[in-house]
Design a protein that fits this description.
Rossmann fold; alpha/beta
Length: 431
């Protein structure tokens, strides 16, 4: 992996991206494209069965592969295990599977570590992960199945805005903590949602950083492509608000469908407007298709994405060389910087428990989120209730995990506002 730190985000240029130094990684990681890291854009303060539970089986009764029928059977046996039961609905198959798999891998590295040490107050943590393929209706079904589990005390790490939005009524009705969803949507940051605990920064924060950087680099002819659902609409509104702070409006907008690579109409709309920058608000499947189409047309545009795109997944979905210069906002630290304590801990445990997995932002987010969850479980005491867990999450205030701070309160369930920008590059290196 090759990185370059840029002190002034406004100075992110082609010349700046050329000034890079090598950061060696273990030989288990094959050729990797460049990522240019803008460290100082810190804003204070994650063919198998569609019902697959867990992408991994790591032992210790921590993550189990079972079918829906077995899930029903487990309702009579789960409580006898004296485990802390956590539920999760994520994409493990389908076009957006890489997001779920990577988030899950990071979370499992930390949870396995905790279980190896005896768990929390002598109780092992069991994560039940159902596959929703990033489709809202399946997420509803999954969540209804999960809440039927005896002793389920939290829902954790759901992936995406449309999938999280549809289960909010269930979350509030059941009074179950909904912890660290991988979404920055404003609809999950409503003060009336008492059981939602967001760890990551909002899309509004991310997009403001993106727009500020584009404007400072004289890239003000900005077009927007957004996913045609709650995620995309939220991102569009955040983009309009960010542009307004610079007295700008989008040059044009276009939509793409969730989980679809059919982007021809959207790309035609963008090409006709001839922008010098394009902000894409979608998962990696559509973003990669749009980016490839723009590259194939040899359009000289700066492409920017929000963190949900999944940096590693986007990089893997693009042909060699076509990722060069693509920008992505991030909400966790740089996963290859082992000098950051939380990253060093992440790298150590990923090597130990998932040695074939590459490092990445999405798995690091899952790792940090799992760490936050276990701290709350520790504070909640043995056999915690859902209400006790919610109170213990609110007690996490100004907690520095070593380069990443989480700060909740009884009236503030937004844990972090950390944002930075990164840029993919074209060069490759041999480990």
């Amino acid at each position: 992996m090759v990185t370059a730190n840029i002190a002034n985000p406004a100075a992110i240029t082609t010349a700046a991206m050329a000034r890079m130094f090598h950061l060696k990684r273990r030989s288990r990681v094959m050729k990797k494209k460049l990522i240019v890291n803008s460290q100082n854009l810190l804003v204070q303060s994650k063919k198998m069965w569609p019902w697959l539970i867990s992408a991994l089986t790591l032992g210790l009764s921590l993550s189990t592969t079972i079918t829906p029928a077995q899930l029903k059977t487990n309702q009579q046996t789960e409580s006898q295990d004296d485990a802390l039961i956590i539920g999760q609905s994520i994409p493990l198959t389908g076009p957006s599977a890489e997001l779920g798999k990577k988030y899950h891998a990071g979370a499992m590295a930390w949870l396995t570590h905790i279980n190896k040490q005896g768990g929390i107050h002598g109780q092992k943590i069991k994560l039940l992960s159902l596959d929703d393929q990033y489709e809202p209706q399946q997420t509803i079904v999954n969540t209804q199945k999960l809440i039927q589990q005896p002793d389920l005390i939290a829902l954790f790490g759901f992936i995406g805005t449309p999938t999280s939005k549809v289960v909010l009524p269930i979350v509030e009705r059941e009074r179950i903590p909904f912890v660290a969803p991988l979404t920055g949507a404003s609809l999950l940051r409503d003060d009336d949602l008492k059981m939602v605990f967001n760890m990551r920064a909002s899309y509004a924060r991310e997009i403001q950083a993106i727009v500020n950087s584009l404007v400072r680099n004289a890239q003000q002819r900005i077009a927007v492509i957004y996913q045609n659902d709650a995620f995309g609409e939220d991102g569009l509104q955040s983009t309009l608000a960010a542009l307004k702070t610079h007295d700008l409006k989008p040059l044009t907008t276009a939509t793409v469908e969730r989980n679809s690579a059919n982007v021809r109409r959207a790309v035609n709309t963008i090409a006709d407007a001839n922008p010098n920058a394009v902000i894409i608000i979608s998962a990696y499947v559509s973003s990669a298709a749009v980016s490839k189409a723009l590259r194939d047309r040899r359009m000289n545009v700066q492409i920017m994405n929000v963190s949900f795109v999944g940096t590693g997944a986007l990089e893997e979905a693009l042909p060699p060389g076509q990722a060069n210069g693509i920008g992505i906002s991030q909400v966790v630290p740089f996963p290859w910087n082992r000098w950051i304590p939380v990253v060093s801990r992440y790298q150590q445990l990923m090597r130990k428990y998932n040695p074939n997995a590459a490092y990445g932002f999405t798995s690091l987010e899952g790792f940090i989120a799992a760490q936050m969850l276990t701290i709350a479980l520790e504070r909640a005491g043995k056999n915690p209730s859902r209400a006790k867990l919610a109170k213990s999450l609110e007690s996490i205030q100004n907690l520095d995990l070593g380069g990443y701070t989480i700060d909740f309160a009884s009236d503030d369930h937004q844990g972090s506002d950390y944002v930075e920008l990164t840029f993919l590059g074209a060069q490759q290196w041999e480990p």
